[in-house]
Amino acid sequence: MKKPHRQPPSPFRFASRAMVVLALTAGVAAAWIWFHGQHKQVTGSGAAAGTGAVVESQASVFAGYAGSQSCRECHREAYEAWAASNHGLAERPASFNACQAAFQSTNRVEIGSQLTGLAVRDGRYEVTTPGLSSNHETHTVERVIGRDPLVQFLVSAPGGRWQALETAWDPHRQQWFDVFGAEDRKPGEWGHWTGRGMNWNSMCATCHNTRLRKNYDEATDAYHTAMAEMSVGCEACHGPAKAHVQWQQQYGKSGRKDPAIPQINRTKMVDTCGACHARRTELTGDFKPGDDFLNQFDLAMVDRSDLYYPDGQVRSEDYEYASFLGSRMHAGGVVCADCHEPHSAKRRLPGNWLCLRCHNGSFPNAPVIDPVAHSHHRVHGYNAAGKLVDTDLKHYQPEAITETGGECVNCHMPQTLFMQRHWRHDHGFTIPDPLLTKQLGIPNACNRCHQDKDTDWSLGQVEKWYGARMDRPDRPRRARARTIAQARAGDPASVEPLLGLLANEPAPYWRAAAINLLEPWAAEPRVRTNLLQSLNDTNALVRAKAARLLDGLAETQNGPVLAVLQARLNDPVRAVRIAAGWSLRSSLDSNSPVARELDVFLNQMADQPQGQLHRGGFLYSRGELTQALEYYRKALEWDPNSAPIRHDLAVVYSSLNQNREALEQLEAAVRLEPQEAEYHYKVALALNESGDLDKTIAELETAVRLNPRHARAWYNLGLARAARQDLNNALDALTRAEGVDARDPRIPYARATVLAQLGRAAEARAAANRALELQPNFQEARQLLEELH
Length: 789
What we know:
By secondary structure, the protein is an alpha+beta fold. Helices cover 42% and strands 10% of the residues.
């Protein structure tokens, strides 16, 4: 969950003798908190067809669907492949075949403290497990989702809800297991099976069904969810086909061209797959095949969070779409259907045969690859001398494979385990690099496979085989990964290479990633200039991320930021318009087309804590603090164990001068996440407001211990120590702050005042001059300099 936003001025302030009072940003009260759940969510209110357009009714939308059965007569082969696929069986009633093996295997499942009883009564499948009341409750399984490699079970709940049990079935091992492993989630937690984190209507339904409407009613906190067809039917990928079916029935034998066949080009095909195979935020809740991805979603991608590793490998449950956008395969024009048969969803060819369709010299943009020479591993189909012996698929015998190290996917598409049973290939087509493992902790495919070897062994093999090729100019991945890691650590030295990446990277995905990573330095003139230029980028993903990152600068900068963002309110892509509208939300005309689109988006998220935060943040930015507080409180009610929510609620309390309540929330956030330096820092600011200088210093010292690169914590620690007349230690803290952030003129100015108090006039003058170098109009620094002469 990312938080690009316009930060409100903080009520928390530090002051020190002989220093000006410097306002510090306390937190994220108006956070643009993108919600990227394990599953995806959709809205019942539908989507605007264009800027501010009226939502099309559910009845009208569903009327255009004919159902998958209508495809069978004319497309029998495709239909049969689909019907047996994971898509065809994505969701279905709890039929005898779906549940029989699971419920006959045992009548008791015990995982951690969770004890689940299983029974079959009168043809119904019943589960007895700890429910919302913490007592064991019996529920009837009425639907299942998933098929391979796991099956999850759905039970009904009040308010039109369906909840996904965390106890799931592995059909291969014939074994029950908990999708959260040893986490042992408890009733009342957001992520417990009874919570909103496991709510089917919001988190699963849209990608397990065809053209679903969530139909959430915020007033009653209830759902009236409906779909055109249960499971991922033919029309989930091809679009509504009733007109096509009717035309074929009437004119199918006439030889005339069918005008009702949906036309979806290769780019739109990738977007259609990405609608479900991406970690993303719904903007409308009404995607249909043929729509542009960014007209319906905002994408979770490489940024300052740990969703992805710095080299782009997936880390959290990120699915495939984003990493694929950043890959050389996508840049080369490859689409999903080039590798996957779209109806069965299986790979078109086994093993390396699939990759060698292009990497055999037949495709102009693909380098020719000899699997044995390239991988330095034995490959099925080649003899020990590396000579190709299997020349066509009739010789391919999967059961004869004894070594998989030479398979392309095992090096360039490493697998990560999700939900305890689901191994997924990374679609970033990254290059294994043990040096990045050694330097930055980024996993590499070599050690994923050779778990009995250490990183140095893998690094030695790679350097022996590939040497300088890993650092050649046309392979910038290693340098890019280092820059991203540096930026995530808050190192200002990353700004120049990030700006270089933004200016020179041909792949839009990585230009957008550079923008995400520039967030801490967005207000710097050179960064701001580049962000403004990026608002005119030819790629909508880049424009959307730039519009988001300019949040907070529109009203503090006279002229260019405001003007360029206002121009983006008419962008042809909805994600850009909404990002620009959010950045301008404090002054946005509530009757404008973009405001209506933003309202659709906010309504779409209203059933989750993050949606309540969004609405509260919108109101906060418009000065409606009391109303905003109610949304923040509801977000906390729905997810009481969220430290970020408590942090943001504290900012709202503080803005309302309810400082005691603010401190309580911040201290609760520290208890929930004691290793998060930022929370200790914010507690220190609140304690300072109450006048408790000793505890303030203690919290700041904890913050810098947890994060030695927290420049603001070092800076404020210096101010606090100076206020206690601990001048030498104050100077040490300020020097450390300047070592982390050499671009903030406040730090050398503060250092100058401390040096002046210590009687070190020459050093004080030098520090004051440094502050003026960074900010020529820094009047306090100029005045101090005059006093020192």
